[in-house]
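Render this sequence as a predicted structure.
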Amino acid sequence: MAETKREIERKYEATGETPVPDLTRVSGVAAVVDRGVMELDAVYYDTPDLRLAADALTLRRRTGGDDAGWHVKFPVASGIRDEVRAPLADTLPGELAELLRSRVRGDEVVPVVRLRSARDVRHLVTEDGTLLAELSVDTVHAERLPGGAEATWTEIEVELADDTDPAVLDAVEKRLRKAGIRPSAAASKLARALTETGPGPRPAATPGTPGTAGAAVLAYVREQTDAIVTYDPAVRRDLPDAVHQLRVACRRMRSAFKTYRRVLDRNVTDALGEELKWLAGELGVARDQEVLDKRLRAHVAELPDTLVLGPVKARLRHRDAARGGHARRQALAALDSPRYLALLDDLHALLADPPLRKAAGRDAGKVLARAVRKDHDRLAGRVEHALSLDPGHDRDLALHEARKAAKRARYAADAARPTLGKPAKRLSKRVKGVQSVLGEHQDAVVARAALRELGLQSHGFGESAFTWGLLYGREEAAAAAAERELPEVWARASAPKLTAALTR
């Protein structure tokens, strides 16, 4: 089974003659314990065009040391990576291959670099022997595969121990700098090996002529494509908010295809939009279930015990477990499907050879401003229609349609922000306020349906349905409050000066 370790480390330039200063002068370090020299042998894998390295990911099979096996490293922040480990095997374990699927897609990974390292290890410990950090002086020999250039270097690596204050690394670095030791220019051994044995990964090309509508829209499409690729392994690892972020990327891109249809040919993007809608729908089961369960649990927790009659919390847990497991399986099945891989291939093909229309070659500011205003007008029509209806089912449906229009208008403004600047930012912020109110209304509508179902189930089992009815009433009140708030929020988002500023 794979396991994950958060790796927090810093690397420094060194030579074979670089002396490591006395680190017992670092606050909290009582002793530096020599742990001897380990011989490590690692083969790094990637696609032939180095897609993993381009995204700062590493995949390796390493022998030697106390963590021999297959490792995949995902960047988290500067100097911080999550290392997912699987036991040593002749071939790449399937559970790690799944984490790389959105980047590798249908291609195979092949050996690209071999690193053999002599690692001189020292432990920095407290007075009671607690490990604070591990410092190693690594003599590294890199070989480009198959049979390519070679390089040799020495570096110092300091890795923070688990559950230790990162301030330890700051203190160690201060001491190393005083000794003339400077941070490494390379983010990892693999990055340095690729640079010194060349060629390294190619930067992603930016399609379209700078300053044109085509370049602006394609930059946004690339951003959302990269988000899908990035959040795919996060969903598989069940990281917080990953499903939501992947789903949002699908929606943003689909919305951009509709908003900027004068820039990108709909004969191509309509089909992609339908596939993005399918993927968002498959992911939505998990996300919607997560949001609803969190809402219901929070509302029950707010009630005094005297109003919680029957096994309310137990029934919610049962509902969460039953539906949540199914939703996650459905999401993973979608990510493992040939249909999803075909979508990824098609998105990359679009970026490589974009289906640009005549408007794509025009000034980005004018084309994007016109598209944003059009989506804002569309939102205005839906909000005004919803507010003209009497409270009830038809108004609920109309408000839901207005919410979808608000998302599209907001996404349109977000896509235009690099081009239009502050006016687009202000419009996005105001429309987000409308979206939030409409979202609260829709969440209350969905919660009412779930509460009615829970009430019927409880009644069928001979339990009290009082609490479910009470919560139903509260959701009715929440929906009504959102409806009362909407006119004021919409007035702020529909001020004529907001859209007029887009063209200044």
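Summary. The chain has a mean pLDDT of 94. The two ends are 58 Å apart (CA to CA).
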